[in-house]
Give the backbone structure.
Amino acid sequence: VQLVESGGGLVQAGGSLRLSCAASGSIFGINVMAWYRQAPGKQRELVAGITSGGSINYLDSVKGRFTISRDNAKNTVYLQMNSLKPEDTGVYYCAAEVRSSTWFADDYWGQGTQVTVSS
C-alpha cells in the first residue's frame, strides 16, 4: 500500500492550500484517514482525522479554518486549509488504517509534504 500526498507549498499568511493523499495497492477498505504535521523541533501532532463513516476530529487550533474530507471510491483524503498562519508551517503527513481483509488492518504513512506559511 502506498500513500501519495500532493498540494503543499509556500503561501502567505491568510492564504489557502489544499492537500490531497491517494492510497493505492492491495486495499480491502480504509478505516481512518488522517493528516498529521510536524514542525521543526516539535513532535508530530494529529491535525484532523476522518473515519469511513464520516466522523471527524480536528486539532483545536485548526477548527474553523481546516476541513478534512474523503472520497471513498478514490481512496483519497483531502485537507482544505484556509486562513493559514505561520504556526501552521511544517511537514504534513497523510496516514491511513488500511484493511487487507475483514479482520486485518495496518497503518501506513505518506512521505510528507512541506507547508510553509510566511508572515
